[in-house]
Amino acid sequence: MAKSTPLQSKKQRPARRSKLASIALITIGLLATGGAYALFTTSATADTTAGSEQLISQGSKLFAANCATCHGMNLEGTKAGPSLLGVGAASVEFQVSTGRMPLAQSGPQAQEKPSQFTTEQTKALYTFVASKAPGPGIPDKTYLGGNGNAAKGAELFRINCAMCHNVAGAGGALTQGKYAPALTGVTAQHIYEAMVTGPQNMPVFNDKNISPTDKANIITYLKYLDQNPSPGGFDLGNLGPVSEGLFLWIFGLGTIIGVTVWLTAKAN
Amino acid sequence: MSSATQERATAPARRSGGFTGAAANYIDERTSISGLVKELGRKIFPDHWSFMLGEVALYSFVVIILTGTFLTFFFQASMAEVTYDGSYLPLKGIDMSAAMNSTLHISFDIRGGLLMRQVHHWAALLFIASIGLHMLRIFFTGAFRKPRELNWFIGFVLFILALGEGFTGYSLPDDLLSGNGLRIIDGLIKGLPIVGTWISYLLFGGEFPGTAIVGRLYTLHILLLPAILVAALGAHMVLLIINKHTQFAGPGKTNDNVVGVPIMPVFAAKAGGFFFIVFGVIVLIASLFTINPIWTYGPYDPSPVSAGTQPDWYIGFADGALRLVPSDWGFMIGPWTFSLNIIAPVLVLVVFIALVAFYPFIEAWITGDKREHHIADRPRNAPTRTAIGAAGVTFYAVLWGAASSDLVATHFKLSIEGVIVTLQYTLILGPIVAYLVTKRICLGLQKKDREIALHGYESGRIVRLPGGEYIEVHEQLTDYERWRLVSFDSYAPLMVRPNARGRITAAQRTRAALSNWFFEDRIAPVTATELHHSHGPEAIHGSAEPAAAELEK
């Protein structure tokens, strides 16, 4: 806009504004955003610069040893794995600390398994990856407390998440052997990170799409489900009518048939 | 049940009189009910566990009516929009229909409401499951043959009504799951060519979901369907009494009698106790296990669909058919779209259900058997029927399993496409394999029965004869045991015969061909002569009677 408006006005009414005006505007804009960015990034890492550099070098070594085969020495990606430039710390933290990365084997999608790295090593890895290119960072703790509006979160969850993850977060099937995992017992931080980075087949729900407050509401709802067992008794895996029907046929009708056999048994 | 109370009232009257006697007398003088009570009280019911499955259905129906009545006191069948303000936190402040709101109110704010809801729903699942099992028992024992064909058909109508009751009930709370279910029905209806859209608008009172459907389904669910169901149930019971109960063959059990216990007092006591056991089992399940957690499904909203959205088990076969049909089937004629991916499964299901409904008449026509049958077949003694049944069960089971294709995929770590394609093949090939295998198994079992009847069973005792020869001693059956093995009818394929005008009609040929298919492979029952030859004259002494009785027919 800043560029095109002076151009148009130049055609219609030349010399109303100085030719340098647009250049000056751009310069000011760039300086302001760049300056602000520099200010924020430096302020965030100012006191830990030394530690952070150490982390980055440790992360770089870990990366070279564990990740570079597929993601390339410079995070540029290979045929076996995507580029990690710009994925952000959130993505790395999610993938590594849930054990999805490094992959145990190739398959339809990365499986959750015990993490291969300590918290410190994970931190080194995501700091290293984030240092190469900016991306979604580790979520702010204020959104992870589970103290949002559960009703709002439940509604958002039903609209945005339930078609893959099931209304109760019990998980569901996707195409070609892929699946949406169950969300029971997943930490608030991982839920948030998954929403902002869209791991595996999950779409990205950025802050324009679902605001951080609403993300906190969704987390609140999921935590509510985790902490409050079903009011109706055992939930049979929250799988809906299939597990109910199976239970009825096997245990309900099974018991009843046992009783009929008992009732009609001949006395010995 | 009412006859049981009456009987209890009249019984002591004969002995001592007193108030009970006077009261019974008073009633009898005005209603002449003692004749009916006497008649019913002496009705005989044979004892076999599989004969009690229909009772399970009856008792769960009673439970459904009791709990359903409770629910009607609090349920509001309205789609007026209200804001939830009840006890369940994650729905507070959410807009929903009055139906959903009142169902949540029943679940969380009415004392005992959640238990009643769960008892109602679990009992409904058990109701239809026990009807299904009861039908299978009738089918595989041939208890639908003359004179019970009509009662089979009434029972079939009851089954369909139960499905209707189930589906309308499932849709009432207006939660996300039930709304999705209705949407599928709406899609099914709209998929029918030309009339579909009109019917859909008629049903929903406009574009789906509208504001009328819950009220309409409610009328069906609590008034129309139960009324027809109770009437059909009455007819079913009356015919059961008129036709008498079937029984398995056994010593003293013939086609002309019923051996068992009379209703009064033994059977009534057993049945009464059984009612409370069924009730108890349902309440136990309902108090321990969640069913239909509408609070997690949330109110219906046309945009969200949850993963793992399934109908209740009894509609599963229809859902499975929709999942298995190739989704790109269809064509257009002029302005009309013919969605074969909807029409084909609907047709297949209608044909399947019609075959179930009319099977007794079809089999009677094929076999040309016009006799009355009161002895239940052992499934092995009707190999073709049993094989047809097994094929039907397989077909149904594959459709049923297909309704949970997504859960099969996630829980067994398979790809959903792989599951669907496998089930598509199984749907076609499974019934054929089941038919062939079942028929062979039946024939094999019959051969074994025949062998045992003629030569006894292997005792495991090896004896060395003086000449050095080893033989295994075969133990002979007692006459009681042998009876079961030898008393069944033998059929032969119908001969193609010209009719009165000397012509062999196409129908006649078809019938002969079908009859040939039915009875081509058969193992004849052991005859008296065969028994005589295998055991010698003294062995036949007791067993001649059952075999001879068979021959007389």
From TrEMBL, chain A:
Heme c 2 binds at C161, C164, H165. One of its GO terms (molecular function) is heme binding. It is found in: Cell membrane. Keywords: Cell membrane, Electron transport, Heme, Iron, Membrane, Metal-binding, Repeat, Respiratory chain, Translocase, Transmembrane, Transmembrane helix, Transport. GO terms for cellular component: plasma membrane. Residues 54-226 form the Cytochrome c domain. It is an enzyme of class 7 (translocase). Binds 2 heme c groups covalently per subunit. The cytochrome bc1 complex is composed of a cytochrome b (QcrB), the Rieske iron-sulfur protein (QcrA) and a diheme cytochrome c (QcrC) subunit. This is Cytochrome bc1 complex cytochrome c subunit. It comes from Galbitalea soli.
From TrEMBL, chain B:
GO terms for cellular component: plasma membrane. The keyword Electron transport applies. It is a multi-pass membrane protein. Pfam families: Cytochrom_B_N_2. The chain crosses the membrane at residues 56-75, 121-140, 152-172, 218-242, 274-295, 342-362, 382-402, 414-438. It catalyses: a quinol + 2 Fe(III)-[cytochrome c](out) = a quinone + 2 Fe(II)-[cytochrome c](out) + 2 H(+)(out). One of its GO terms (molecular function) is metal ion binding. Residues 23-249 form the Cytochrome b/b6 N-terminal region profile domain. It is found in: Cell membrane. Residues 531-553 are annotated as: Disordered. This is Cytochrome bc1 complex cytochrome b subunit. It comes from Galbitalea soli. The lineage of its organism: Bacteria, Bacillati, Actinomycetota, Actinomycetes, Micrococcales.
